[in-house]
Specification:
415 residues; mainly alpha; 4 domains; 3-stranded antiparallel sheet
Length: 415
């Protein structure tokens, strides 16, 4: 039955009112979460000090525990801890605005980020200047919030802002993340002068093929040149090791079971077969060795086991661990693997084996060595680890499903 105009308007108004009320409640819960986070950090520091942990190690692993509790990566856990401490101890007006729903958690994060280089006194001064009851941020979007915070910070301490810009160059890096349809984003964070120079060189070089009748777009030429200049090879494959994991059925029988490209993720079966042909070695004997090393068992999707009597993981086993784990095995952490870790430490009798191995990022490996943390292998159809934190909470990490894993087993692991 259709609603009359007045009734429909009243119903629409009620829905908007509830949406707004929920937004206010979300912000209030975020403020409460910040206060609890600071209380937990203070409690953990006292307990660590009482346990005799050196002063320079106090606070280790706290951000990681917060991350696990919130279902976030360890890196974001540390950022959330920093946000909470800034709001509770230095920015009471901003925290009050979050508690009352005048400011959401993200815009509070922007204010904290843009005042990070200031002293506590200057940051508190900016907090007071931009207090919601002054109307400065009423109706302001993200860019306006950032602009207001930057201007206020610069007026108080221009030297710190300048030093921060100089320090930013030390954060330069290159990262890779998946994009749809077997594409990816290769991103470089560079000083502006270097970034402009690279882009100008690629653009300038792309003009010549275009003027000569090349049918590729300017963007396509720039992308192809970037790959060739970096790897020394058109297409970037020759001489670069990639790990492509698939079942024998996908490779030889045209099966539709997707494959997995280490460092990227799931790729279509047809694309994987094309790639396998593109990098096919000279002899079928070499190909059989490659397939055997990355073969997944039917049903469970477990990779074939390997072990070693040495303390350090040998190169073939490290590659095997990399292929199995894909990214850091700490729950919610998607960071690249940097360390090949003994789950049960070598000095405690842990073996150098696939079952006792986990790929971890550097930060998570250091956190695991903090007093109160423990990891043990856990029974399961696929490789599983139980992680226990200093508060006694436990979290489980199961290796991602590989090609060949049955749908039943996937559902069992997810439940």
């Amino acid at each position: 039955m259709a609603l009359s105009g007045d009734v429909a308007e009243q119903e629409g108004a009620r829905l908007i009112d509830e949406i707004r009320a929920l937004e206010v409640e979300k912000s209030a819960l975020a403020a409460r979460q910040a206060r609890l986070t600071v209380a937990f950090e203070q409690l953990q520091r006292r307990q660590q000090a009482d346990a005799g942990i050196p002063a320079d190690r106090l606070g280790a692993g706290i951000g990681a525990q917060i991350a696990l509790a919130r279902g976030e990566s360890p890196a974001k856990g540390n950022r959330l801890l920093g946000l909470a401490k800034a709001l509770v101890t230095e920015m009471p007006h901003t925290l009050a605005a979050v508690e009352t729903g005048q400011l959401n958690e993200w815009r509070a994060t922007l204010l904290v980020r843009e005042t990070a280089s200031l002293s506590a006194a200057d940051r508190s001064s900016v907090d007071e200047e931009l207090a919601p009851d002054t109307g400065t941020l009423t109706g302001a979007g993200d860019r306006a919030v950032v602009a207001a915070a930057r201007a206020a910070a610069y007026r108080r301490d221009p030297r710190s802002v300048t030093q921060r810009a100089a320090h930013a160059a030390t954060e330069r890096h290159v990262s890779l993340r998946p994009a749809p349809d077997t594409m990816c984003y290769l991103t470089a964070l560079l000083p502006v002068s270097a970034g402009v120079a690279v882009h100008a060189a690629l653009t300038r070089h792309a003009d010549s093929p275009r003027s000569g009748g090349d049918e590729r777009s300017c963007g396509q030429i720039m992308a192809d040149d970037l790959v060739e200049w970096t790897t020394g090879t058109p297409g970037g494959i020759t001489g670069i090791e990639i790990q492509l994991i698939m079942t024998d059925r996908t490779l030889f029988q045209g099966d539709s079971e997707p494959a997995r490209l280490t460092g990227y993720g799931v790729v279509p079966a047809g694309w994987a077969r094309t790639m396998a042909r593109a990098v096919e070695p000279a002899s079928s004997e070499e190909l059989s060795v490659w397939v055997r090393r990355l073969y997944t068992a039917p049903g469970t999707g477990e990779l074939v086991a390997m072990d070693s009597r040495a303390r350090l993981f040998p190169a073939p086993l490290r590659r095997f661990i990399q292929a199995r784990d894909d990214t850091c095995r700490t729950p919610y952490c998607d960071a690249p693997i940097r360390h090949h870790d003994h789950i049960v430490p070598w000095h405690n009798g842990g073996t150098t084996s696939l079952e006792n191995a986990a790929g971890l990022c550097e930060a998570c490996n250091h956190t695991k060595e903090t007093p109160g943390w423990q990891a043990i292998p856990w029974p399961g159809p696929r490789h599983t680890i139980e992680l226990r934190t200093p508060t006694g909470h436990t979290y489980h990490s199961t290796a991602p499903p590989l090609p060949g894993t049955s749908q039943t087993e996937r559902l069992e692991r997810a439940s």
